[in-house]
Write a sequence for this structure.
């Protein structure tokens, strides 16, 4: 019970900070988060994923500087189309909240249904808060097999408030970091449950987590080591895990297919815009931060 209350307190405090800092006065669609998010209005609202001709009007309404789109969406020499340099993983997480905001704008006709008005701001912010809370519940479910509720409550409090997770949830919205945390929590939960029960749905969830990580924060593909070396303390454990996984080769193949589906969606976008299946989207940068 204490751990549940800790998670609810976290959600409440993040929400309080958002409204206390008056999110409406903030230009929250800027920098990296703006271009993680750009997939959604470009595809769902404007049906323009390669030219972004709608963006000039958005800049006029909400952004004083239009120079950023040139750096974040460079024109491809082969096709003349503009490519969003970031993966679409964050947009997958934000999509349900975007659709709710879109429905609200269409139903009320109170604010512009342009993908960037106040309802979309709220959706953009609370996407992170809600997903992180769900991740903390997943983490709690994983930990309860090994620790008491009091220990879990302290652990969750330390992670939620003592790391940059709190900053990226309550202050700097739309970054990929909170969503990567969601996927790591899902991977821990599904891996632990699969090794304990061998139920296929947990292996599929692990595949989902890894596939989404590849298009959210590619460097975090190192998370693949979690299911590969789960609960290993020696060579015998490694051999036993290998035999166990090999005996479930059909379920493993399905999990690998799930990983491929998500990466293939990203590759289809790259192929359409650039003409290539694989694209190094940071080739024009002076430096490359793998954390983006």
């Amino acid at each position: 019970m204490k751990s549940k209350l800790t998670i609810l307190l976290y959600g409440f405090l993040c929400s309080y900070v958002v409204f206390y800092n008056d999110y409406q006065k903030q230009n929250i669609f800027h920098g990296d988060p703006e271009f993680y998010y750009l997939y959604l209005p470009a595809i769902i609202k404007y049906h323009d994923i390669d030219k972004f001709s709608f963006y000039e009007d958005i800049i006029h309404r909400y952004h004083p500087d239009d120079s950023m789109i040139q750096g974040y969406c460079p024109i491809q020499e082969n096709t003349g189309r503009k490519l969003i340099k970031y993966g679409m993983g964050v947009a997958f997480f934000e999509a349900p909240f975007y659709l709710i905001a879109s429905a609200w704008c269409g139903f009320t006709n109170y604010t512009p249904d342009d993908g960037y008005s106040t309802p979309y701001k709220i959706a953009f912010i609370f996407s992170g808060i809600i997903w992180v809370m769900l991740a903390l519940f997943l983490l709690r479910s994983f930990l309860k097999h090994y620790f008491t509720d009091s220990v879990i409550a302290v652990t969750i409090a330390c992670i939620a408030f003592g790391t940059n997770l709190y900053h990226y949830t309550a202050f700097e919205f739309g970054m990929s970091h909170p969503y990567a945390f969601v996927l790591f929590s899902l991977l821990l939960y599904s891996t632990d449950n699969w090794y304990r029960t061998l139920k296929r749905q947990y292996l599929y969830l692990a595949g989902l987590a890894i596939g989404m990580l590849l298009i959210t924060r590619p460097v975090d593909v190192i998370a693949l080591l979690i299911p590969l070396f789960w609960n290993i303390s020696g060579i015998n454990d490694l051999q036993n895990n290998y035999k166990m996984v090999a005996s479930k080769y059909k379920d493993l193949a399905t999990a690998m297919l799930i990983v491929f589906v998500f990466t293939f969606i990203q590759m289809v976008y790259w192929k359409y815009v650039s003409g290539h299946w694989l694209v190094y989207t940071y080739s024009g940068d002076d430096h490359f931060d793998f954390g983006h």
Observations:
- Residues 286-292 have pLDDT under 50 and may be disordered.
- The two ends are 36 Å apart (CA to CA).
